[in-house]
Amino acid sequence: MTPTMVIDIGRQAVEVTLMMATPLFLAALLTGLIVSVFQAATQINEMTLSFVPKLVAIFLAMVVAGPWMLTLITDFASRLIISIPSMIG
């Protein structure tokens, strides 16, 4: 196993991690933006008002994007396991 292979596997792992986290981050970001605008307009500064909608949005994003995320991580893991003989030899 060469250092180039290790760097390539690490790069692929980071890419898969970022791709899996993107839907959740976007859901939290958009929900936080909407709640912040609502709080600024109504001057309601309640911490649970920003926490609960983000939690619900992240849960919904996991329900919607979950199958895609699961396919992404299982494909990466299977490619990694399948390539073990070529890495060793």
UniProtKB/TrEMBL annotation:
GO terms for cellular component: bacterial-type flagellum basal body; plasma membrane. The chain crosses the membrane at residues 56-77. The keyword Iron does not apply. Signal peptide: none annotated. It holds the Pfam family Bac_export_3. It is found in: Cell membrane; Bacterial flagellum basal body. Keywords: Bacterial flagellum, Cell membrane, Cell projection, Cilium, Flagellum, Membrane, Transmembrane, Transmembrane helix. GO terms for biological process: bacterial-type flagellum assembly; protein secretion. It is a multi-pass membrane protein. NCBIfam families: fliQ. Role in flagellar biosynthesis. Belongs to the FliQ/MopD/SpaQ family. This is Flagellar biosynthetic protein FliQ.
